[in-house]
Amino acid sequence: MAYSIFDDFRRAVQNEDGYLLASTITPRAPEHDGGRLYDFYRTTNHYSVQTDFRYAIVYNNTAGLSKTEGNHWLEVYVVYWKAIGQLRVAEELTNQGKDKEAEWNKVYDAWRDVANALIKGYSSSAFPAWTIPCLYVAGKYLRAFAIKSDAAAAKFRKNTTFNAGLQDDIAGAMSTNEKLEDAARQINRTFSLCISDRAPLEESRKWGVYYTTNLLFKTYFKLNAIGLSKNILRSLQATKTDMPPLEAFPKSHQVTFKYYVGVILFLEEDYVQAEENLTEAWQLCHQDAQKNRELILTYLVPCHLLTTHTLPTFELLAPYPRLQELFAPLGQCIKRGDLAGFDAALAAGEDEFVKRRIYLTLERGRDIALRNLFRKVFVAGGFEDPREGDDRGQKIRKTRVPIAEFGAALMIGMGHTQERMEQEEVECLIANMIYKNLMKGYISRTHNMLVLNKKGAFPGTGI
Amino acid sequence: MSGSGSTTAAPTTKATVQDTKDTSEPAVPQKPAAALEEDDEFEDFPVEDWTQDAAGPPAGTTHLWEESWDDDDTSEDFAKQLKEELAKVNRK
Fold first, then answer.
1. Of A405, A455, A461, A446, nearest to A429 (Cα)?
2. Nearest residue of chain B to residue A96 (CA atoms)
3. In this complex, is the C-beta atom of B3 within 8 Å of any C-beta atom belonging to chain A?
4. Percentage of chain A with pLDDT > 70?
5. In terms of pLDDT, which residue wins out, A392 or A367?
6. CA nearest to A260, candidates A243, A278, A244, A285
7. How far apart are CA A106 and CA A111, in angstroms?
8. Alpha-carbon distance A223 to A185, whole Å?
9. In contact, A296 and A259? CB cutoff 8 Å
10. What is the reported pLDDT for B60?
11. What does the pLDDT read at residue A155?
């Protein structure tokens, strides 16, 4: 049991098993071996760690490592050991309810040393590419510890300040994410390590590109610095020809990437591209990954509404009660042309929508609701009386509709909560519909009528 | 994404707080909230890769999107409402 981590290390090296190797420097004990980190820490102490590990890795070299590589791994494990020490202290304090004393910033700093040691190993070409999952672990926990550290710092700041409310937020805003910003920089270095590797594909770190990209996306999102993601996308675009296609990467990398790219595009209002990415993410996403599927839909539904003017079916949302709660009322109001209901539903979900940054997009759904309301007016108007020469049974709807009828419809749609609109206002709304291609026709001022196209008065709706 | 080891010891700590609202605990599984979970962050998948038959919406889900208008809504009803509304105007 004593050196089980190094047994795994040797085995990993012999079998070129990157994930096994990564597990040896993962700061989280596996479920089947809950005391592993603690045991590992106890095998040595600050005075002997260097010597003990050197023996285990460099001298006891059954794995056949080069001296250089051995020494790099030595450094990694020594700093890893120190990081575990810090982690344990913080965890124990937390478990004892003394979380205010837990120094997560030290844990972060110690982990950063681990990341640094790994980065050095790669940039000096000591570590082969199959060991790349180690960089994944480095990046993943840089984020995790940074977030914990920043959260603890924020809490501390909150508890020691005498000013409540706004001022605290503004003052704190500048440095609330100190460690996470640093983590972003470190992960960016791992990204560069991957993307700039010139080795042939079979031995290339390029296979780590999307994992590290995804880590960066997650970090930028958390930092509310989504714009920085564009830099990454530009770098990826620039090296496209040298890289294997996205489809060659593991599905987890692909789906995560497509989700984030989809959301980034969504936030830039490039809804067509966003939809493409989100749909692909949806199709590829593992069927059991409930939360991720829910996340994809959260953006795909509003996106789809705008690009295709269609709504999610009950079937689509059935597995996601929270999404049903959010989207179903809006959908029903859109269908019915219930403007007042739409506004109410939008307001009711406002907090959630804003949080997810989909409020503005959903708001545009009101146009569809309005279109549907006006469409009802058209349908209610019925058909022209058949005239001589018309095809038998070919009924044509009345295409000349008084503006007043639309005005009346608006009163109904708004649940009679509003003052009657001026005719110009109604005409303005109609003009907008026509401009947006949701209706086709022209306004006849002299007759106070809207003259709709005989064919396709309401494009895409069958009439 | 947890930094806490899964030792036999105790439960993890209560939420640490960022900003003014209660936000997700960074390294600890989120408690289900009344609304959407605060975190819009993609979770790690349980496996790294999978085949297409383990992907996508549940088998048999064919009808995903539907038209945004409703022809079922009886237009007679609406026509009546419209007439009434127009009558109100003319009365004025």
1. A405
2. B10
3. yes
4. 94
5. A367
6. A278
7. 8
8. 12
9. yes
10. 73
11. 83
Tally of CA atoms within 13 A in the half-sphere of A318 that contains its CB: 11
Tell me the average pLDDT across A368-380. 94
Tokens encoding A393: 């049974």
List CB contacts of A147: < 8 A, sequence separation 6 or more: A179, A180, A222, B26, B27
Q: Copy the structure tokens of residue A279.
A: 């749909």
Q: Which residue of B has its CA nearest to A29?
A: B5
Which of A40-44, A156-160, A185-189, A251-255 has the least mean pLDDT? A156-160
Per-residue pLDDT, A172: 46
Which residue would you say has higher pLDDT here, B68 or A256? A256
Query: What is the token pair recorded at A155?
Result: 């809490």
User: How many of the other CB atoms lie within 10 Å of CB of A445?
Assistant: 10
The residue type at A275: E
Confidence of residue A274 (pLDDT cuts 50, 70, 90): very high
Record: contact B89-A408, CB cut-off 8 A:
yes
Gap between the Cα atoms of A335 and A342, Å rounded:
10
Question: How many CB atoms sit inside 10 A of residue A241's CB?
Answer: 5
Tell me the C-alpha distance between A127 and A205, whole Å: 10
Q: If DSSP codes are grouped into helix, strand and coil, which group holds residue B66? A: strand
Alpha-carbon gap: A355 to the closest alpha carbon of chain B (Å): 8
Tokens 């042939």 belong to residue: A200
Quote the minimal CA–CA distance from B27 to chain A in Å.
6
Whole-angstrom distance, CA of residue A334 vs CA of residue A367? 9
Confidence of residue B38 (pLDDT cuts 50, 70, 90): low
Determine the distance in angstroms separating the CA of A433 from the nearest CA of chain B, rounded to an integer: 15
| pLDDT for the residue B29 | 40
Task: Choose, out of A31, A286, A320, the residue to mutate when testing the contact with B (most B CBs < 10 Å).
Answer: A286
**Cβ(B19)–Cβ(A169) below 8 Å:** yes
Coil, strand, or helix at residue B63?
coil
The Cα–Cα gap between A223 and A230 comes to 14
- B16, B52, B63, best to mutate vs chain A, most A CBs in 10 Å: B16
Is the pLDDT at A260 greater than 90? The verdict is yes
Cβ contacts of B78 on chain A, cutoff 8 Å: 376-377, 379-380, 412
Look up residue B31 and give its DSSP letter.
P
